[in-house]
Amino acid sequence: MRILGIESSCDETGVAIYDDEKGLIAHALHTQIPMHAQYGGVVPELASRDHIKRIVPLVRLVLEKADMKLSDLSAIAYTAGPGLIGALLAGAMEAGALAYGLGIPSVPVHHMEGHLLAPMLEDEKIQFPFVALLISGGHTMLIKVEKPGQYELLGQSVDDAAGEAFDKTAKLLGIPYPGGPGLEKLAAKGKSGTFNFPRPMIKNPNCDFSFAGLKTAVLNATLEHKDDLKDVKADIARGFTEAIASTLEIKCKRALKQTGIKTLVVAGGVSANSDIRNALKALMDSIHGKIYFARKEFCTDNGAMIAQVGMLRFKAGQIGDNSIKVFPRTPLSNLKPL
């Protein structure tokens, strides 16, 4: 069986084909970053319109890559949420139209479940259960995963997500959108320990996060050094990145200890950051555990993760009714078990 996956939750249009025996066989992605960069962030209306333009050509492209026809598909999976409502509707309408026209089921997929299981796209098999750290522009969560479809929230951000903190800090330092990659490059030039920013909520016994205070600390540092900011930018970026990585490491260690699990899976756009990866690798080495990351190209939003989860849900009989239903917000706990 083969399933087509469509991702359109924000500013990436992703399409992929997943085979239940061979795995991922073709994928393609279009990013809207150049379009949104001039505005300093994603403009929802522009994002929606661009998805409408891009989805059909990308579907044709992945079918060509896979040497397939539409009639070879068993189902169409799409991101039903969470995300920008207009962007979600663009993907859902295309999926619904394809499914209706082909007489096959459509499969709604939770965007965060896609990220959560993205490391499973690699050849190395991940053993269950594991603790997952999801770090993206809109989410920072620790989740206990007993098996696909069975998730227990251990902790999450009570204010800004890690990705939001990266973007806002980058803006303070004059780094253009998207801020994450530019901030990482700047931090690499900085001196460690020059700025010791707070590690929020690390003394709390829970696994929740808070990054708003860290963002404020960076703001205060930029104001304090407004006359020589050019000279200390890299050091501020270094201190900020170290604070984020250290906080994530401490909270992951706590989650692993509380669950008794020694396998950590890390996914989401922010997980592409090298400092965060190195800190978490060091943590897992220290406890003789295993760590898995999504491939960097699958850290950002993509169709491959949607197609993979779509296949799991499709094989479990969890299909849609081909109506256009999306949800801008919904917790993972609302998902049916597989």
Total domains, how many? 2
Helix and strand composition category: alpha/beta
Strand content: 15-25%
CATH class of the largest domain: Alpha Beta
Output the CATH homologous superfamily of the largest domain. Answer: ATPase, nucleotide binding domain
Query: What is the spatial order of strands in the main beta sheet?
Result: 3-2-1-4-5
Helix proportion range: 40-55%
Q: Count the helices. How many?
A: 10
The average pLDDT value, as a whole number, equals: 95
Query: What distance separates the N and C termini?
Result: 18 Å
Do you know the CATH architecture of the largest domain?
2-Layer Sandwich
What name does CATH use for the topology of the largest domain? Answer: Nucleotidyltransferase, domain 5
Family: Belongs to the KAE1 / TsaD family.
Keywords: Acyltransferase, Cytoplasm, Iron, Metal-binding, Transferase, tRNA processing
Protein name: tRNA N6-adenosine threonylcarbamoyltransferase
Organism: Succinivibrio faecicola
Description:
Its cofactor is Fe(2+). This is tRNA N6-adenosine threonylcarbamoyltransferase. Its EC number is 2.3.1.234. Residues 24-307 form the Gcp-like domain. It is an enzyme of class 2 (transferase). With 338 residues, the protein is an alpha/beta fold. It folds into two domains: 2-116 and 298-334, ATPase, nucleotide binding domain (Nucleotidyltransferase, domain 5, 2-Layer Sandwich), CATH 3.30.420; 124-293, Nucleotidyltransferase, domain 5 (2-Layer Sandwich). The protein has ten helices and ten strands. Strands 3-2-1-4-5 form a five-stranded mixed sheet, with helices on both faces. Strands 8-7-6-9-10 form a five-stranded mixed sheet, sandwiched between helices. The radius of gyration is 20 Å and the shape is globular. The protein starts with a strand and ends in a 23-residue tail after the last helix. The relative contact order is 0.19.
